[in-house]
Amino acid sequence: xxxxxxxxxxxxxxxxxxxxxxxxxxxxxxxxxxxxxxxxxxxxxxxxxxxxxxxxxxxxxxxxxxxxxxxxxxxxxxxxxxxxxxxxxxxxxxxxxxxxxxxxxxxxxxxxxxxxxxxxxxxxxxxxxxxxxxxxxxxxxxxxxxxxxxxxxxxxxxxxxxxxxxxxxxxxxxxxxxxxxxxxxxxxxxxxxxxxxxxxxxxxxxxxxxxxxxxxxxxxxxxxxxxxxxxxxxxxxxxxxxxxxxxxxxxxxxxxxxxxxxxxxxxxxxxxxxxxxxxxxxxxxxxxxxxxxxxxxxxxxxxxxxxxxxxxxxxxxxxxxxxxxxxxxxxxxxxxxxxxxxxxxxxxxxxxxxxxxxxxxxxxxxxxxxxxxxxxxxxxxxxxxxxxxxxxxxxxxxxxxxxxxxxxxxxxxxxxxxxxxxxxxxxxxxxxxxxxxxxxxxxxxxxxxxxxxxxxxxxxxxxxxxxxxxxxxxxxxxxxxxxxxxxxxxxxxxxxxxxxxxxxxxxxxx
Length: 510
Fold this sequence. Notes:
Largest sheet: 5 strands, antiparallel
Strand order of the largest sheet: 6-5-4-8-7
Mean pLDDT: 75
């Protein structure tokens, strides 16, 4: 300790300050790269459309200027084109932008060796605020046929970047573990099953869209022919249809769930169709313009399949029937909230003409999704009961723990104890309690007195000490067992991501 005290503070704190400076430089580089990549994506799409469109003149300056509102469109910011609102924006470029932001955030966290939730919040906040202010600046600068509201740009760009950045560092920096540590086992299982339900309903929407494309192939070819006589016009129409494919998948689920969708005066439901004009886009040729057929009711079986899939997965949740039903409720709520968000983003305004507003009826769709997931899943959980294989495995594990505890109680080392057995047991319990309290106090004191360090060996030692104070806590799991006993009174002060992040490389552990 005297050697450490003899080191001047300027020398001891120098490497730490340099490390913090490198972290900020890495964050700045990642944010700048993401902003530039988004701008280049918008410029590339606009340049491709202008280069292939018949009769259009390719001007690099126009492309660079048009990429500014294109960047806002990538972040789902509502635009106005000659005072006509346009908020039905493609979701495919937005998903690509979110993947870029998440990958950049994960790269910064890995290179900066961020491993705790308190280290992740500055990164997430910086990524979100920078995108929010850049979007606001672009909205303020735009002055011409295309404009945007600065407040809308701030909220949409900031929220999208924040969500994507949090998703990118959730595993490495312990955000997932933070949620897992604070919820009950059945709630955690319900959250995971809610993501499964979202994936299943997206797959159901894709099946509806694929069936519609196969049945409407001649109409789509005719729509491509009406766009123009050149191959460039067909390429532009096809590219626009591809960009709106995720919107169409969400619309497919809305159709399958029974709530339907509307484009202006056109209303489409499995059992009812109100005709109306639609934009002459190949993808929109999938929408029927005549009365519904009786066999369209078959699509109502897809949401039932989604509920049955969730119910089958809930059977593997350990515990009583009440716990499994609670997991069903949480899963249905997660699926409904996700559907509400997707339906709201996929719709919007499409000018002031006859097409008007494109809506997927988010509130009604969320309510229908809640019922389609909850009712079949609850019926399967109630009638089919738990998965017997999982229950047998849990019983065997519990029997093994009981046998281990019995063997520990019958330790021959305790045979030398004399006197009343009850007094000896009470004495041993008191000693164990005092010893455990002393060990815990020593561990906490060591943590409080130990200086912070980025050395990997010290981080692993700290993680090991933290785990020693909570040996009975279940490991980080993808299938956490229901804990019948009370949770431990004290939990580790810090989270060691090496417990649950299997993606760490040798460079990260040094």
